[in-house]
Amino acid sequence: MHVWRRLLQLGVAMTVVTLVMGVVHPSAAMAKTVTYQVVTNEIAAKQKDGSTIEVYRFDPAVYVATEGDDVNLFIRGLKGHDHPVVLEGYNVKGVVHRNQVTKLEVHAAKPGFYRLICTAHYDAAHEGPMEAYLVVVPSGAAKAAAAHAAAVHGGTM
């Protein structure tokens, strides 16, 4: 289980490095509202003994914003029934229902890594963990990335 958490952390770190290195378009680094379309997903794997293991996931599972941005997560319930969710650190809560879209809104006031967790699928014993991460990059880093990208690409991308 720790291997998957480490791989997720590596993926998040690579996303942040990409942003800071200015690979994204400068206007994206300065966005005021960031919107993500997310779905709930179920992954099933048949085991050697014939049994099936199912886990629930958010797709995508990493959301990047700049400090000061407003973040909108539109989460569509595709698989499973109700998914009660909490964005830790901001205490934003909601319930994602099957065949419906739930909107979570947060003002990304604090840089850091924040876990979005489905409290019904919080660990392997409960077909999880069903979690995703909001990465809030300090505004100074985003401005530096945009300036670097503009310098490298001559102001155009």
In short:
The protein is of the alpha+beta class and 157 residues long. Helix content is 24%, strand content 41%. It has a single domain, classed as Immunoglobulin-like (Sandwich), CATH 2.60.40.
Descriptive report:
With 157 residues, the protein is of the alpha+beta class. Strand 1 (33-46) and strand 2 form a beta hairpin. The chain has a five-stranded mixed beta sheet. A four-stranded mixed beta sheet has the order 2-1-4-7, with no helix packed on it. The chain has helices at 2-20, 26-29, 139-152, and strands spanning 33-46, 52-59, 62-66, 70-76, 83-87, 92-96, 101-107, 112-118, 131-137. It is elongated. The chain has one domain: Cupredoxins -  blue copper proteins (Immunoglobulin-like), CATH 2.60.40.420. The N and C termini lie far apart (40 Å). It is built from three helices and nine strands. 26% of the residues are buried. The model is unreliable at 19-29 (pLDDT under 50). The longest helix has 19 residues, at 2-20.
The CATH superfamily turns out to be Cupredoxins -  blue copper proteins
Strand percent estimate: 35-45%
Tally the helices.
3
| CATH architecture annotation | Sandwich
**Count of strand segments:** 9
